[in-house]
Amino acid sequence: MRDVVINTSHLAEQFPAALGDGSRWDLRIHYSYEGPEPLETGGGMQRALPLLGSEPFIALNGDIWCDLDFSTLRQYPTGLAHLVLVDNPEHHARGDFGLQHGMVFDEPRLTFAGIGVYRPALLAGHAPGKFGIVPILRAAMRDGKVSGEHFRGRWCDIGTPQRLAAIDAELTQS
Questions:
Q1: Among the residues of the chain, which ranges form H helices?
Q2: Which residue in 172, 83, 115 sits closest to 164, CA to CA?
Q3: In contact, 74 and 147? CB cutoff 8 Å
Q4: pLDDT tens digit string along 18-28?
Q5: Is the model's pLDDT at 31 over the cut of 80?
Q6: CA–CA distance, 35 with 25 (Å, rounded to integer)
Q7: pLDDT score for 52
Q8: Can you give the pTM of this predicted structure?
Q9: 55-173, CATH topology level
Q10: Which of 8, 104, 151, 153 would suit a FRET pair with 88, their CA atoms being 20 to 30 Å apart?
């Protein structure tokens, strides 16, 4: 069985009602409630650490769609994190990070896909509460502790109603 942790905040009670315990997908779903105000990616990951354990874990944003085969991701990053980067979409033409020889650096060239493999140590020493993951990743990049890969498959940021409707229409027609 595979364990999945879902961070919830807004409408948190609807997730267990809709997804249950995950057994219908051969998963075991655990829910980590962030409180009435979302804790952002870093704070949410840190809050979920007791459910995630001490091994590296995959985290992905809830507002993306992609056809990545997650079994191909590096299970044990050589550093503190391994990020998936994609070509820049029209709405984010500048990008977030660069990638050279398998290492991620802080220069906008590609877009962070919202998918990564993280070691819990990345969050060590950070005070609990609301905080983003990007500043922590940038610090780890400066230390050469973030590897990455360029995913060239299908990826979509579905963070707006329009982009969600577009991918839904596309997948419904397929």
A1: 14-19, 40-52, 134-142, 161-173
A2: 172
A3: yes
A4: 999 999 999 99
A5: yes
A6: 27
A7: 94
A8: 0.94
A9: Spore Coat Polysaccharide Biosynthesis Protein SpsA; Chain A (3.90.550)
A10: 8
